[in-house]
Amino acid sequence: MDNKALRVIISGGGTGGHIYPAIAIANELKARNKDTEILFVGAHDRMEMKKVPKAGYKIEGLWISGIQRKLSLKNLMFPIKLIQSLLKASSIIKHFNPDVVIGVGGYASGPILYAGVKKKVPALVQEQNSYAGITNKLLAKKVQRICVAYEKMERYFPKDVIVHTGNPVRKDISKLDEDSRAKAFSYFGLDTNKKTILVIGGSLGALSINESISNHIDQLIDSGYQLIWQTGKYFFPKAKEVLKDKSQAVIFCSEFIYEMDMAYAAADVVLSRAGALSISELCIIGRPVILVPYPYAAEDHQTKNAKALVDKDAAIMISDKDARTALIPALFDLLKDEAKQSALKENIKVMGICDADIRIVDEVYKLVD
Q1: How many CA atoms lie within 13 A of 224 on its CB side?
Q2: DSSP labels, 103-147
Q3: Residue 1 lies in a domain
Q4: For a surface tag, which of 131, 137, 210, 369 has the fewest beta carbons within 10 Å of its beta carbon?
Q5: Torsion of CA 277, 278, 280, 282, to 10 degrees
Q6: Angstrom distance (rounded) from CA 296 to CA 299
Q7: Residue 209 phi, psi dihedral angles, 5° rounding
Q8: Domain co-membership, 344 together with 224
Q9: Based on the structure, what is the number of domains in the chain?
Q10: What's the CA gap between 54 and 67, in Å, rounded?
Q11: Sign for the pseudo-dihedral over CA of 253, 235, 217, 333
């Protein structure tokens, strides 16, 4: 395939689950041809406006936001924001003159893909979740390719444009081995003779998971387990208070873990939310996992993501409302059941796709050619 230099717009964002796959796609495009020019388009007040420049890419912001699901004055501004965003998107398409437009979901991808399609620019959508977002469903009949991470997505999209590519993840996560595990134990100051529980709930944390851990911390310590605990910024002060008299315990506690490859390498069992990016990473690392979906995600998509794994006996799911009473008993049951751990490992690993960024960029070049 001729990996010629392209002009590419990548649009979308709002959450890390949209932004990190977008950056992974951009990195693969640049790896194919260093002269490829990439412009990101995001929502001007969302996290992509900081994360994308840190990754070394230019970004333009649109004045766009979603419709509130309850009565709100913000909804009165939506038509004005949409019209202004469509006008700016059209101007961006005209001046940048892309060979292809890629949408990764989130508010900003709607206007820019719509403007690109109107100008006859080839367009590709990357849908991370098992339940399609509103923006991507609206765009589905207008784009030439939809790259998905789950089976049965023809429920939402035309079958002839769907390609099963998986979700792009960070490269270091797909390269874990026994050496990685030894380094991880040393890095976190862990005991090689104890089973390790990794607790993650996103950058803001997960209250139900955090409270389950803090309420049962003595039981976990007395049972001989050790923890890597990412609390998120809001729960971190409470976690420090809970742990201040637990100096005998082997617990690494932080509001955010940047070295997630090491955290995964050390883990024997994982407690996690069910965001698309987290699940894609968990499938690649192949660890037994208990998922507690965030119940207020759009269209409850985290529950649907989790069920896609549960249906294949690749994960255990506990609802958020039941977590405070049911999560720790389920965790202890799993830690004692080696056969169940082995089955979960085997089944989740089958679902992992390590080269999703390569597959997606292959589709980009097919579209342009």
Answers
A1: 6
A2: E-SSTTHHHHHHHHHHTT--EEEEE-SSS--HHHHHHTTT-SEEE
A3: no
A4: 369
A5: 170
A6: 8
A7: -70, -45
A8: yes
A9: 2
A10: 29
A11: negative
In a shared domain, residues 121 and 211: no
CA distance 326 to 16: 28
The pLDDT tens digits of the residues spanning 74-101 come to 666 667 777 888 889 999 999 999 999 9
334 domain residue, yes or no? yes
By residue range, what is the domain housing residue 239? 172-350
Q: Give me the average pLDDT of each 10-residue run along the chain (369 residues).
A: 88 80 95 97 85 93 67 66 86 97 89 94 94 86 94 94 93 81 94 96 83 96 96 93 89 92 96 93 95 89 94 97 97 98 97 94 95
Shared domain check, 176 and 165: no
* Same domain as 249, residue 143: no
Same-domain status, 141 and 202: no
* Contact residues for 229 (Cβ-Cβ < 8 A; gap 6+): 199, 213, 239, 251, 252, 253, 254
Query: Rounded to whole angstroms, how far apart are CA atoms 341 and 334?
Result: 7
